[in-house]
Amino acid sequence: MREASAADPGNSAILLRLAGISRAAGQPDAALDAVHRALALAPLDFTALMMRASLLDAAGDPRMGEAWGHAIAQKPAGDLPPQLAGVLAEGERRHAAWIDQRATRLEAAMADAEDAADADERRRIARFRSNALRRTRAYHSEPTHFFFPELSEREFHPRARFPWLAGLEAQTDAIAAEFAALLASERGELVPYIQYPDHLPMRQWQPLNRNPDWTAIHLWKNGRRVETNADRCPHTMAAIEAIDQPIIAGASPNAMFSLLAPGVAIPPHVGVSNARLVCHLPLIVPAGCWFRVGGETREWRRGEAFVFDDTIEHEAANPSSQLRVVLIVDLWHPDLTAIERAAVAALIGAEGGTPGSL
Question: Terminus of the chain with fewer CB atoms < 10 Å: N or C?
Fold first, then answer.
């Protein structure tokens, strides 16, 4: 058998040892060459990437920031040896500083455009920059069942597309009062938000399935008006009528009060169909309650409604010691034409409506 040597181009471990010897001997160029040869054989090797980043950093090479990012991305699971953990911690600090420097440079380059932008344009421009810096990433619509092509993908949709939002917000006090009265009466139908048969492959919901920590008082549920609740909420029902809700047999309209108990988190998940969007009107919001859609996280604020795409990964949490309550209503995606809406309603209706009942 041929004996392996430091010159063996097929042995990345030996090449890394050669790199270490070269570095110790004060030959950084030779060390970097050996590391690059090792990475040609194993491009995602964490140790090799760490050594490359540290060599570039020591040399003041402008590529060091990106190199630290590549190494950090391949960090293995579990604890690292103390010496390597210390090097990684310093690398993370150096990488963060490099990102901050890039951000400052990009903000300066984009300043004229941002100064001329409206609020929604500024938000999207800032997200474009954040994505370029890898502080956030792109998220896309990934419905569990029904994907309609070529609809605009937005985590949070701009208010300008929904002129009825201001009217809904104006009813916040009346809607909150009706919710409080309904809850106090103990006559409303309060049910777990998540309810599905145990045999379905939906493990992300297992801790919350039929769990009273996340409950709902339905006003409309899968196209059925829940009379017990709706009759006691006339202002709320009137406000909902102004919303362009889908009418689909066995699936929609849907409207409910969503109650999230203190200390409860809703795991990342996606919705059923991108042909609909979802509106939240926060009614009771303790400090610190947050909601993430894709790469954007917001805190709910009482009376400030928003529309989002629930087929983009989203999650929520109530880290407070009090109940959080939001009115949730679904609506048509505004890109759909009347004919396309009819086609969506026909297909989903023919499939039996809500997939959760399958």
Answer: N
Which of 202, 175, 145 shows the shortest CA–CA distance to 353? 145
Region 156-357: CATH code: 2.60.120.330
Helix (H) or strand (E) holding 283: strand 276-284
The architecture (CATH level 2) of 1-137 comes to Alpha Horseshoe (1.25)
* Same topology between domain 1-137 and domain 156-357: no
CA gap 167, 242 in Å, rounded? 9
Query: Is the model's pTM score more than 0.90?
Result: no
Rounded to whole angstroms, the Cα distance separating 165 from 54 reads: 53
User: Cβ neighbours of residue 291 under 8 Å, at least 6 residues apart?
Assistant: 280, 297, 298, 299, 300, 314, 315, 316
pLDDT band at 174 (very low <50, low <70, confident <90, very high): very high
φ, ψ for residue 175, nearest 5 deg? -65, -45
C-alpha closest to that of 9 among 33, 25, 28, 26: 33
148 residue type, one letter: F
Strand partners for 146 = 273
Residue 203: DSSP 8-state: G
Distance CA 179, CA 188 (A): 9
CA distance 113 to 329: 36
User: pLDDT digit string (tens) for 131-151?
Assistant: 999 999 999 999 999 999 999
CA-CA distance, 347 to 267, in Å (whole number)? 29
pLDDT, mean over the chain: 90
Residue 216: closest CA among 47, 86, 80, 356:
356
Distance between CA atoms of 16 and 41, rounded to whole angstroms? 11
Sketch the domain layout of the chain as residue ranges. Answer: 1-137, 156-357
Cα separation, 267 vs 324, whole angstroms: 16
What digits encode the pLDDT tens for the residues 252-307? 999 999 999 999 999 999 999 999 999 999 999 999 999 999 999 999 999 999 99
In angstroms, rounded to a whole number, what is the distance separating the alpha carbons of residues 330 and 309?
10
Query: E strand or H helix at 247, and its extent?
Result: none
* Amino acid, res. 312: I
